[in-house]
Specification:
Chain lengths: 144, 151, 494
Amino acid sequence: MKSLYVIVVGCGRLGAHLANLLSQSGHRVVVIDRDKESFSNLSSEAFSGFKVEGDASEPETLRQAKIGQADLLIAATREDNVNIMVALVAKKSFGVKNVMARVYDTRREGLYREMGLETVSPILLAGEEFFRLVYKALDAGGEK
Amino acid sequence: MLDDKRVLIVGCGRLGSQLANRLNREGCRITIVDKDDSAFTALEEEFQGIRLKGDALDESVMKEAHVREYDLAIAVTGKDDLNLILGLVARELFGVPRVIVRVRDPSRSDSLGGFKFITVCPTNLAADSIVNQVESALAGGDTRPFDNPAK
Amino acid sequence: MREAQYLLSRYRGVLAYVGLISALVGLTMLFPLLTMLVQPMDSLAASAFFVPGLMLIAGGLSVWKWLDSSKATLTLQEGGVIVILSWFVAILSGMVPIMVLEKLNLTQAIFESVSAWTTTGLSVIDAAKANPAILLWRSTMQLAGGAGLAIIMLAAIAGPGGTSLSTAEGRTDQLVPNVRASAAMVIRIYSGCVIAGILALHIAGMNWFDAVNHSFCALSTGGFSTKAESIGYWDSPVIESVTIVLMLVGNLNFVSAWCLLKGRFKALSRNGEIRLVAALIPIFAGLLLWLTCAPIYASASKAVRVATFETVSALTTTGYSTVTYGNWNSFGILLLIVLMLIGGGACSTAGAIKQHRIYILIRSLILEIKRPFHPRTIVIDSSFQQGEDRIPISDLQVRSIGNFVFLYLATWISGSAVLAAHGFGIRESLFEFASALGTVGLSIGVTNADAPVIVLWSESAGMLLGRLEFFVIFTGAAKLARDIFRIAKPETAC
């Protein structure tokens, strides 16, 4: 399987977890976060990529992460606006082909799609999963 | 089929209220607990269930909720640890047959012992979804979406 | 109770990796059989390689298949245990052909095996009389030991491993942001250099057999030779120059080597280790030339060659020599000891305290001295170059380096004392033990087949402690002992 060069922006829960999974699968992962402490979320066993401490909204930070080589960038910080901006910069200025952004405010999803960004909404996914499980539980509910 | 199913929901935040509204429309008998009664404004007008204000682990609240009588308990407060405790209490102590709990922190969501209730971790779901997209695109041999023309 | 169960499940993973590494060790054992193409080997000799080799491959792979279920990831401590157990397997297997073919006793065979895997190069075997298969085996062990069993393994498997193994082995270099991709690249660089080395040495005048062995041992900064006189046998400036280049390349840490290949010279020129080496070699070689070599050697060119070669050999901890030291004055011996203590580049195949640590200590010292002279508000640049990045020097780093250096020097003195207690002079004891501890391999005469048993064991211990940088051995052994206790006696843990 081909190894992708992936940049993950934001080393919070989602970013760190993503970085761990992708690194373990053999992809080359670089994680960017403003705060050095966030890198402790990374698993020392699963993650073998590089870390860049800096503000991803600054092009210099992205260059340090060698964005020119990136196959995929995932913006996973806690703020929608930052994610969108970084995603756009990656796509339009640096020409990264595949860009995903995490969104909290699901009302904006349509707009982001129009801009050519793939979005990920953990909240939506959790909601869908919850409903699926609830219906399953209640349907089966007769037997104790 | 969902008529008269009794559901306990702890936490009336965004997800909690969504669940409560929908299930209520489908005919479930819902008791929803939140320590902050302003949270209940998220509930629809048609909501017919019981609203309880208080700390779900508080004895008096538990008594009022008649915890033993539910078919399904859902813990969706803002705090992972609280949700986990609620899950354990509902399942182990009160024997609620089905329990679903939200845990935001991925490292909390897999347990050494194996919980007897279901945990839903939004982070894991999102991460898994992304990784699956990546892997299936690659496995399908279609690396075109991922090839960087600049290289 | 639960803890014992939990530990056992973790050890499945640990033993699985040990199995895999053992299989790889078994594979290397088959390599020397190639000498049969040139010179027949009797069946006993061949089976000394064949039998353990196949057993390891079969056994190791079965353990790997059978135990490796969950693909769980390892902790750093578990990595340490894996490293210890693997080294154990490697040393014991390495010893078998040596014992059988060279008729050595246990102490001597283990010594030679340890010297091979740790890329030291001290020997109790007379190379002139040894079986070529054994010579090739020694060189193969040095090549593999230099690359690091762990790195090879990481490249080979398709499973997880994270950075714990390479960190546990004492390396933290990484070329690209994924450990398996990095490992694959390291292997490619290493192989490329080995092949280039073989060609270069052959062109310079060695026959193929000698070229292969010396390329293996120069790049891994090991130092075993097919000749008793080491590189001095050829008395050839060309061969000596090629060997010097190979030793310097072997001394480069992988990140620098990669920069070199990619043409990133600016980053290289700012690298502290490279600067240190660029400074140390001329200074030391110059001093050696002036005060030791010029008086002894008849021609000026010979003196220059000797001074340069021995300096590079000692600093890179390779251990090839062009002369013996019987007629050297104490100043020369002292210089060599200092070089052997400073040692090679960090994250390379070299040993001792390592240039990187010395460089950081020097920077730290300079900062200390400058500090009172600067106004309080000035920000001083305290960072060093690693590959492409500048990394700040932290107090924690300086402290841990300080501790390491202290431990190193204390061990050196203790080991030397053991040698001295057996009748060897101060000069000889300090020299030989520095050579063992730093995995250098230069010998002043203490190490040979007749050396006292305790001396050989002390040197073996020194080589291992030096190669694995003490702590892996301590923490790995401690964890292993504690875990065995907990698994065997679960009631006390409950």
